[in-house]
Amino acid sequence: MPLTVDGFSHVRLTVTDIARSREFYESVFGWDVAYEVPDGADDATREQLGFLFGGVIYHVGGGLFGLRPVAPSSDAFSEDRVGLDHVSFSVASLDALTSAAATLDELGIAHEEIKDLGQMAILEFRDPDGVALELTALTA
């Protein structure tokens, strides 16, 4: 009998440079931080939050999205290797997708043109480590 799930709880990406990745994700999405080791944390707090590996986890909708800074700086993302292909976030409408493209332009972040796939439209771009990101709006 297959497992029954209600949705996704969280996704965490491994990144090469936490400062660079935080700057990107916080400027693009502006998510609230759910978990991070506070400055000046005592040893007990650091141990309790050791699962962060020096990274951060954000609130995103009904779930969590994290950055884990343990990859060597020489590593590079490839959707052609086993593992992650891309991460897609939903937006409310085609207008929101158009607005997102304008925001990416303002931030100087390269992106593809909005693609109409029939019942949905997508906007593709990449994070600083080359992880493929996508925004999706239902159009039907």
What is shown here, in short?
This protein has 3 helices and 8 strands; from the N terminus they run βαβαβββαβββ. The chain has helices at 18-29, 43-48, 94-107, and strands at residues 10-14, 33-35, 56-60, 63-68, 87-90, 115-116, 120-126, 132-138. The radius of gyration is 17 Å and the shape is globular.
Strand numbers in spatial order across the main sheet:
1-4-3-2
Overall 3D shape: globular
CATH architecture verdict of the largest domain: Roll
How many E-type strands? 8
Total number of helices: 3
Output the keywords.
single chain; 140 residues; alpha/beta; 2,3-Dihydroxybiphenyl 1,2-Dioxygenase, domain 1; 4-stranded mixed beta sheet; globular
Structure characterization notes:
- There is one protein chain.
- This protein is α/β, with parallel strands linked by helices and 140 residues long.
- The chain has 2 domains: 1-73, 2,3-Dihydroxybiphenyl 1,2-Dioxygenase, domain 1, CATH 3.10.180; 84-140, 2,3-Dihydroxybiphenyl 1,2-Dioxygenase, domain 1, CATH 3.10.180.
- It is built from 3 helices and 8 strands.
- It has helices at residues 18-29, 43-48, 94-107; strands spanning 10-14, 33-35, 56-60, 63-68, 87-90, 115-116, 120-126, 132-138.
- The strands form 2 sheets. The protein has a 4-stranded mixed β-sheet. A 4-stranded mixed β-sheet has the order 5-8-7-6, with helices on one face.
- The longest helix has 14 residues, at 94-107.
- The chain is globular, with a radius of gyration of 17 Å.
- It starts with 9 loop residues before the first strand and ends with a strand.
- The model has no long low-confidence stretch (mean pLDDT 95).
